[in-house]
Design a protein that fits this description.
Layout lengths: L14 E4 L6 E4 L30 E4 L10 E5 L13 H19 L6 E8 L11 E7 L4 H7 L3 H6 L8 E5 L3 E4 L10 E5 L11 H21 L6 E6 L14 E6 L1 E3 L2 E2 L4 H6 L8 H10 L1
Antiparallel strand pairs: 1-2, 3-4, 4-6, 5-6, 5-10, 7-8, 8-9, 9-11, 10-11, 12-13
Helix pairs in contact: 1-4, 4-6
Length: 297
C-alpha cells in the first residue's frame, strides 16, 4: 500500500486519530487484518520465498501490510537461516544487521516527511510475531512518538544512561563502551537497557567499533535471556535514537530497550487493569536479583 487507504462509504477513513481524553494517538489500520498469521506452508523470508528471491546475508524491504503510509514501514531480515536467533549470529553477521539498521534509519530519515525512525523487534508468538524467521521491523513516523519524546525532554538520558548508572544491575558489556543493565525501576522482570557509554545520538552515527559492540552485546544478552529459563525468551525490543527532523536534540543518546515477557519458566508477566488504569507498575522481581540471574545465565 503506497498511501492512505480510500475513505469508506460511511465516511470513516483509516489513519491517525487522537483520543480526546488522553491526547494519545492511535493509527486505525483495518487493512492489516488481512495479513497472514503464522503461515505453515512456506516461509516468505527464507531464500526462494515470497520476499527473498535468492540468497542473502541481511535484507530489508517494504512491509506488504504497512501500518504507516508511503512505504514508511519495513521488514529487516537478520539471516537466511530460518531456525536461528540473534544469539546464534556470528559477530560479523550481527555487525551486518547493525549496519543495515543504520543504513535504513538514515535513508528513511532523509525523507522530509519523516521525523522519527523506530527500529524494533517482536520475538515469539506470545508477543504477536506472525513469522518465526529471525527478523525485525522499522517504522518511520511523521512526528516524534510520545514515549521517545518524554525521554528527550529535559535531558532525562543524562541520568538514565550516563556513566555509572547500572551499578550492581549491570549484566554485560561490549566494545565501544556498550553496556546492558536492568533498569532500577524496571516494569518487566528481566527488562534490559543497552547503551554506549559515550553519547552517540543515533544508529547512523555509530562508528565501526560501536556497531561491532552493539552487535556483540545483542548476541550476548539474547543468549542470556534464552538460557535463563532454558527456552527461547519471547521479548519486545526497540531503539530510541535522535529524531530525523533536522533539530539539534543535544540530549539524544542512542539506546535499546528489551522487555522479556516471562517472569518465570512458562509464566508470563501480564500487564493488568490496575497498571493500565493507573499508569503505576508492579514488578514481582527485584531488578538487582534479575541482573544477578542474567549474569549467571
Amino acid at each position: 500500500m503506497d498511501g492512505p487507504e480510500p475513505e469508506n462509504a460511511d465516511g470513516r477513513r483509516p489513519g491517525p486519530r487522537v483520543d480526546p481524553l488522553t491526547g494519545a494517538t492511535t493509527w486505525i489500520v483495518p487493512g492489516r487484518q488481512s495479513r497472514p498469521h503464522l503461515p505453515d506452508a512456506s516461509c516468505p523470508f527464507c531464500p526462494g520465498g515470497l520476499e527473498a528471491a535468492g540468497p542473502y546475508d541481511v535484507l530489508a524491504f517494504p512491509n506488504r501490510w504497512p501500518p504507516l503510509p508511503e512505504g514508511r514501514a519495513e521488514i529487516v531480515l537478520y539471516t537466511s537461516d530460518h531456525d536461528a536467533s540473534f544469539a546464534d549470529l556470528s559477530p560479523q553477521q550481527a555487525h551486518r544487521v547493525v549496519d543495515l539498521w543504520a543504513d535504513r534509519s538514515a535513508a528513511l530519515g532523509a525523507d522530509p516527511a519523516v521525523a522519527y525512525v523506530l527500529v524494533f523487534e517482536n520475538r515469539g508468538p506470545e508477543v504477536g510475531a506472525t513469522i518465526a524467521h529471525p527478523h525485525g521491523q522499522i517504522y518511520a513516523f511523521e512526528s516524534v512518538p510520545p514515549t521517545a519524546a518524554v525521554e528527550l525532554e529535559g535531558d532525562r538520558t543524562a541520568g538514565g544512561l550516563g556513566e555509572g548508572a547500572p551499578g550492581d544491575r549491570l549484566v554485560a558489556s561490549a566494545p565501544g563502551g556498550w553496556r546492558a543493565w536492568v533498569p532500577a525501576a524496571a516494569v518487566w522482570p528481566y527488562e534490559l537497557v543497552l547503551a554506549p557509554g559515550p553519547r552517540v545520538p543515533d544508529l547512523p552515527s555509530l562508528d565501526d567499533e560501536g556497531r561491532d559492540g552493539l552487535g556483540r552485546l545483542l548476541v550476548d544478552v539474547v543468549g542470556r535471556l534464552d538460557r535463563l529459563f532454558a527456552a527461547p525468551m519471547p521479548f519486545m525490543l526497540w531503539f530510541h535514537q535522535r529524531p530525523f527532523d533536522g533539530g539539534d536534540w543535544p540530549s539524544a543518546h542512542l539506546h535499546a530497550h528489551i522487555t522479556p515477557l516471562l517472569r518465570s519458566p512458562g509464566v508470563a508477566r501480564y500487564v493488568a487493569a490496575a497498571e493500565l488504569g493507573s499508569g503505576v507498575w508492579f514488578n514481582p522481581v527485584d531488578p538487582t536479583d534479575a541482573a544477578e540471574r542474567l549474569r549467571r545465565a
